[in-house]
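Our preliminary data section would be incomplete without showing what the modeling component actually yields. Below, a chain of 377 amino acids is followed by its predicted structure, encoded as tokens that our downstream tools consume directly.
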Amino acid sequence: MVQSAQFAHSLEGWFGFLPLWGWAAISAFIVIYFLALPFGGLATYIERKIAADMQDRIGPNRVGPIGLFQFAADAIKMLSKEDFIPKGGDRFLFNLAPLFVVVGSCTAFAVLPLSKYLIGADVNIGVIFILAVTTLIAPGLLLGSWASENKWSLLGGLRAASQIVSYEIPVALSILPVVLISGSLQIGTIVEQQGWTVFGENPATYHFWNAFHNPFTFFSMFLLFVGGLAETNRIPFDLPEAESELVSGFNTEFSGMRFGLYALGEFCDVFVMSAMVTALFLGGWHIPFLDIEKLGFALPTGLVAFIQFHVFMIKTLLVVFVVMWLRWTLPRLRVDQLMGMCWKGLLPLAFFNVLGTALWMWAFKGQSLMQLLMGHG
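Predicted structure:
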């Protein structure tokens, strides 16, 4: 607490004319308008291109080179559409519901470790923070569907609430093995512990990504990914907005910018989920078998941050690509299959992985599979 107060006082003295809360607001503006919004827009373009390639079509190709500015045209079209609220709907909740989704998704960006030197707030309960703020999405979908006064919307909202609440349990349990390994809930610390040392140093320090720490964490990564698909309402878990059944589900009555906020929240949530998989299991900003901060010569801090940021983004966007790939590959599940997969499949496997990781840590004194293969101990 003393160090935090001294740090805050030094920042106030440095910037002088603006208090800390002002700089926090500016930082939030930068994150939302220069990271979350561009990603949400570009993600729609990329997904349409991926869909076109898989279906032997061209895709967007009119606005800008290779259709790159199509997302900007879509945003202008969305802003110019009629602002419609159903006559029997709840006006206040109808306006408020999309904000829950966007706030829940964008707030999670604050603790994502984009590099060792690019972490908005590396709080000591970062994992719990992300699990907590992303739960705002469920009431956002449910309130929006209820306020629409539409039976298809309400059915989609009920599906979304039950689906998100159910899959939060295996998602949280799939993260627990990583917490057992690292002994921390701080995402920056978890990423830092997945680094790689230069050959020739003490074999006890050899460590690789948590996905390969032991067999149980490898399967935990897939459980987190599958549970994340369900929480973000992506195929094969897109029952809340099944176009062929519910006429788009919870967002049937939404138009204009409100509809755009729902779409933005979904794509931001996909990015957050993919970033969590990258940070917790795929080494975050670390390059495989290389530590750029131990090369025998010192690199400028700005260059290190630049390299680490791009490594993290490449890994995250590869996971995002898999999410989009699955949309055009797998069929939609039925509701009974969806819930059965959670309670009869993912939940027991998640418990098994937690127990298996605990036994591994006890049996091998916390050593990773890499350390055992290197012959240490």
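The beta strands are 113-115, 118-119. Residues 1-16 have pLDDT under 50 and may be disordered. Preliminary results of this kind motivate Aim 1 of the renewal.
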